[in-house]
Amino acid sequence: MQFDILTLFPNLIRPLLAESILARAIDRGLIQVQVHDIREHAEGRHLVADDYPYGGGGGMVMKPEPIFRSVEALLTDSEPRPPIILLTPQGRVLTQAVVRELAGHRRLVLVCGHYEGVDERVRQHLVTHEISIGDYVLTGGELPALIIVDAVSRLVPGVLGDEAAPDKDSHSAGLLEYPHYTRPPEFRGWPVPDVLLSGHHAKIERWRRQQALCRTWARRPDLLRHAPLTDEDRRFLGQWIAGLPEDDT
User: Fold this and answer.
1) Whole-angstrom Cα distance, residue 64 to residue 185?
2) Which of 26, 74, 84, 188 is least enclosed by beta carbons within 10 angstroms?
3) Which residues are catalytic?
4) What global pTM score does this model have?
5) Candidates 2.30.42.10, 3.20.20.140, 3.40.1280.10, 3.40.50.670; correct CATH number of 2-153?
6) Candidates 3.50.50.60, 1.10.1270.20, 3.40.1410.10, 2.130.10.10; correct CATH number of 170-242?
7) Over the stretch 100-124, which tens digit does the pLDDT of each residue have?
8) pLDDT one-digit tens code per residue, 45-64
């Protein structure tokens, strides 16, 4: 999987690629992340990549020429055109479903907006996708780009030690993830649930599923409208919401 990140501030991105899972995935050749400085394709002595907006108003707007040239320098006629993604608060909201969709591509080009945004002609004639990581505004697209790299990389075979791990994460199955515990078995009088110490794998899996259902109902009930629930899930949730004792059969 290859990621090309186009930015005015490469040094905001590179340090985070040198640590943890992403660094190991890069070292093992499972993913490639290239960071490209948009200013290298700007003109003039000062390599200006932004200018005042036509019509007035505060802030600066990223110029179209350096962005077009940066993208075009990466592409060749001999390969399929990859998704060219503008990170913007006006884009499609990033969800785990969108992450899985993006992971189906061999290459992603991520364009980081900055300042007041980019010239509208970049949206109209260059990028193929616009993605937002949430309903709020950041200084630039560098953090959202890294989030996409991280989220998509987790789905690349071999990046995680446990190949099934992504399927257990929050949102992967439409639910929030169940609680986790580790040693010690008791901390400041707070014990680990007995079921997790029982060694009974079927009961542990059942407990985890039920905890995921309870946590999702309590924190993100909207997710349950689209989650793939079984009849047993619905029966348990109904009993739990009503405060009825759980059927332990």
Assistant:
1) 58
2) 188
3) 89, 116, 154, 169
4) 0.86
5) 3.40.1280.10
6) 1.10.1270.20
7) 999 999 999 999 999 889 999 999 9
8) 899 999 999 999 889 999 99
